[in-house]
Structures are given as structure tokens and as C-alpha cells.
Amino acid sequence: MTPEQTKIVKVVAYSAAGIAAFVIGKKIIGAIVSSIQSSSNLRNLRKQIDTIGSLATINQTQATKLADSLFQAMKDTGTDTNAVTIVLQQVRNEYDWLLIRTAFGTPEYGTVGEPWWGSGTPTDLIGWCRKELSGSLLTTCNTWESKANALGLGGLSDFSIVKG
User: From the DSSP assignment, how many helices (H) and strands (E) are in the chain?
Assistant: First the structure.
């Protein structure tokens, strides 16, 4: 190899190494930025959840019990509207509804002719209410759902970072 060819090979090798270092560095920086953004998003979510917890009139344990009562009232053939009424009377504001909705989760819903309960489609609380309730009970649920959605907090998926 001539000295000129050796020089070209070195330039190409150094250029390739530089490009590789740039790409790897960019990925590392991207991962760091993403981690910082995720951490920031988590802090914001925690603040929102703390806000919900401080404005709700019920705590996480109560919300879980109320959500379970709603599920039990609606899960089998025929809805226990008296049980639903008792639960809805304990909802004082949209923050209570958010906690109950979160505790309810997305149990599977099915009807006769479709996959049966427990083997159907994952459905949230308002979905269950819209399938199982009517009249003033459904109106009440829709009202709380609208007020909760107006807060702009989105759907909480679990209580893992809720104070309670």
C-alpha cells in the first residue's frame, strides 16, 4: 500500500469511528433525555394524584371498597340498583369518582350471546355503567364521568403512587 492509500484508509477509519461515536453518543443522550422527561412526567403525575387525594372526600381504601361494591352489583345477570344507589350517594365530587374509577379498573365484560363475564372485553367503570344502568343512575354516572374528564387528568391506571 502506498503512503497515499494508507492516509486515505486512516481518514476513512477515523471518519467511521467518529460517525459511530456520534451515533452512540446521540443514542445515549436521547436515553438520558427520555429518562429525565419520564421522571418529570412521573413527578407531574404524582402531583396530580396528590391533588386528587387531597380534594377527594374518600381515601384509597374506601374507593376500593366502593368500586368492589359496584362490580358486585353489576357483575351477574340483573343489576342490584339499590347497591349502586348506595355507592353513588357516597360520591361527593369528581375526585371521589376518579378514585373509584381507578380502583374499579377494567374487569372483563360480556353478555349473553357474547363471551360471559370474566371472559369478555376489558371495560372501565363508565363502560359497565352504560351497559348495566339506565335512567337517573346512568345520568349520575355520566355526570361524574364528565366532571372527572373535565379535570384533564386522564385515566389513572392504578394506585401504585396514590397516597391513601
Answer: 6, 2
Q: How many CA atoms lie within 13 A of 161 on its CB side?
A: 12
The amino acid that residue 43 corresponds to is R
Amino acid in position 86: I
The number of beta carbons lying within 10 Å of the beta carbon of residue 45 is 14
Q: Give the global pTM.
A: 0.64
65-116 tens-digit pLDDT: 999 999 999 988 889 999 999 999 999 999 999 999 989 999 988 766 555 5
| Contact of 96 with 90, CB cutoff 8 Å | yes
Alpha-carbon Rg for the chain in angstroms? 27
CA 39/CA 124 separation, integer angstroms: 27
User: Using CB atoms within 10 A of its CB, is residue 102 exposed (0-12), middle (13-18) or buried (19+)?
Assistant: buried
Residues 90 and 58 sit within 8 Å (Cβ to Cβ) = yes
Strand, helix or coil at 121? strand
Contact 76, 111 (CB under 8 A): no
Distance CA 146, CA 134 (A): 17
